[in-house]
Specification:
With 223 residues, the chain is of the alpha/beta class. Helix content is 41%, strand content 13%. It is built from ten helices and eight strands. It has a six-stranded parallel beta sheet with strand order 5-4-1-6-7-8, covered by helices on one side. 40% of the residues are buried.
Length: 223
């Protein structure tokens, strides 16, 4: 059993399911440049390292010269449609309420404007003491700068802190500062890729019913 004071959460795929809106925005950017739309899973697999990297991945080397135009089209569309289909993941509200006495932070590579709009619209923002975004200091996960600032701000001990995400990027970020790493299944990352990241813990089911025992391998966060 581990005792945790600080919980750091990823956003996309962890707290919210934003896949369809991101896929739609990417394919709008591609079709606006007369490129064929991409399959849902292809776009989902490209998400996670910030919008600049996303544009490089969805364009490919043969169309990289179109990156700025694609980025502009993506931002214009996504800013108007980021809540068309995006919802809080099942069980998230109950889980956050269960851990209401913990210090909780959002650490995401998503831009701040998008992040705040989503958290506020889904009534999640009040659960978090701090929200760190990829465009605040231009330091994106797995760069340890963001998570280090969070630990310093809360004066948190690494052995009493955990990062909860849905990708190997979150695992790398946590390991860079020596905190516990936990991944949520059913997010953006395929299960076989998650397994290869070898996080400390997996979350199979979210929600208050499971919150006290949601970490597998015989450990749990003391509530």
């Amino acid at each position: 059993m581990i005792t945790v004071d600080l919980m750091v959460f990823d956003l996309d795929g962890t707290l919210v399911d934003s896949r369809q809106d991101l896929v739609d925005a990417v394919n709008h950017a591609r079709t606006s440049l007369k490129l064929e739309p991409l399959a849902f899973q292809v776009v989902v697999d490209a998400v996670g390292d910030g919008v600049q990297t996303l544009m490089m991945r969805i364009l490919g080397p043969e169309n990289i010269h179109l990156r700025e135009l694609a980025l502009q089209a993506f931002r214009e569309y996504y800013g108007k449609h980021l809540l068309d289909h995006t919802v809080a993941r099942a069980g998230v509200r109950d889980m956050l309420d269960h851990f209401k006495d913990k210090e909780k932070v959002v650490l995401t590579n998503k831009g701040r404007d998008y992040t705040l709009e989503i958290l506020e619209a889904l009534d999640l923002k009040q659960s978090f003491k701090m929200i760190e975004c990829g465009d605040k200091h231009d330091e994106r996960k797995p760069n340890p700068a963001g998570i280090s600032r969070i630990l310093n701000f809360f004066k948190a001990k690494p052995e009493r802190s955990v990062i909860v995400g849905d990708s190997p990027v979150d695992v790398k970020t946590g390991r860079s500062v020596g905190i516990h790493t936990c991944v949520v299944q059913g997010g953006f990352t395929r299960e076989e890729v998650l397994n290869g990241a070898k996080p400390d813990f997996f979350i199979g089911v979210l929600g208050a019913k499971h919150a006290a025992g949601w970490l597998q391998h015989g450990a749990r966060i003391r509530s």
